[in-house]
Design goal:
- This protein is of the alpha+beta class and 262 residues long.
- It contains 5 helices and 14 strands.
- It has a 5-stranded mixed β-barrel with strand order 9-10-11-13-12. Strands 3-4-5 form a 3-stranded antiparallel sheet, with no helix packed on it. Strands 1-2 form a two-stranded antiparallel sheet.
- A hairpin with a 2-residue loop joins strand 12 and strand 13.
- The two termini are 22 Å apart.
Length: 262
């Protein structure tokens, strides 16, 4: 289920379901996922508070498409009035309490049903929850007073970042061929959109955390990730890059349904 879609098959001309009341019925729209060929139709029956798109049976979502989930809309799952993106990221970007080996693994695993549908309205508490929330919203829309494109760097918003990326952000990325430097205690990734690719550097200050993250990334090196960071521009390996400190695995989420080669 998605609250937005594209008017054109080339995944351009983004439109929100709530803006379609004035458009003619029977028109076909296209799934926001760049690898999904689903054709969508808006659902705006009387009594539905938040309209959304669903796939036509003749052109269903691909297996693993994040927009095929039959989950409640973001407005139903969370309380927007309580949403503070910078506060949420600051919780991810802090050292784990107690031993650095005692890590919250929920944040780096594919989301479960409880991640998608909390029993009570509140705010996202993992990177995956935050990512799923922002991914279901149009990149040009605002949530909690902040534009979605300013919170999530993905294939939709990448064209906005032609010069630099800075500040608090979630970034879709994959590993570089050489993805770590033990002497520098750094990890190297690259943002996913090939048309506007950035080199990402994660700098780690804790040797134990470095080893944990290195093992996790190596074991899932063929997949893509979402990384939470407070980004700034640097120079690394004779090229421009953006860098963030990494304090724990909680800053990294595996996108198990999006292999990096796609």
């Amino acid at each position: 289920m998605s609250t937005y879609a594209y008017r054109k098959p080339d995944k351009s001309d983004e439109v929100a379901a709530e803006d379609l009341y004035s458009e003619p019925a029977g028109k076909t729209y296209y799934c926001p996922d760049p690898d999904c060929l689903a054709w969508l139709t808006p659902v705006m029956r009387n009594g539905i508070r938040d309209p959304y798109f669903r796939a036509l049976p003749s052109h269903p979502h691909r297996e693993g498409c994040p927009f095929s989930k039959n989950a409640a809309s973001p407005k139903e799952r969370y309380d927007e009035r309580k949403f503070d993106f910078h506060c949420i990221l600051s919780n991810f970007m802090s050292a784990d309490k107690g031993s650095s080996s005692h890590t919250n693994h929920t944040a780096i695993r594919p989301s479960a049903r409880t991640d998608l549908e909390p029993k009570e309205q509140g705010v996202p508490r993992t990177i995956r929850q935050t990512y799923d929330l922002l991914k279901q919203l149009p990149s040009s829309s605002y949530y909690g007073g902040t534009r979605v494109a300013d919170m999530l760097f993905d294939s939709r918003s990448s064209r906005m970042y032609t010069q630099f990326v800075s500040g608090d952000k979630l970034i879709e990325c994959r590993l570089c061929r050489k993805f770590y430097d033990e002497k520098r205690a750094e990890f190297y990734l690259e943002s996913l959109p090939e048309s506007n690719r950035y080199c990402l550097v994660l700098a780690c200050r804790d040797p134990n955390v470095f080893g944990q993250i290195r093992g996790f990334l190596y074991n899932h090196r063929s997949y893509s990730f979402v990384v939470a960071g407070n980004w700034r521009s640097i120079q690394r390996m004779n090229r421009s890059a953006i860098c963030s400190l990494v304090f724990s695995k909680r800053q990294i989420c595996l996108l198990s349904n999006i292999p990096a080669g796609q």
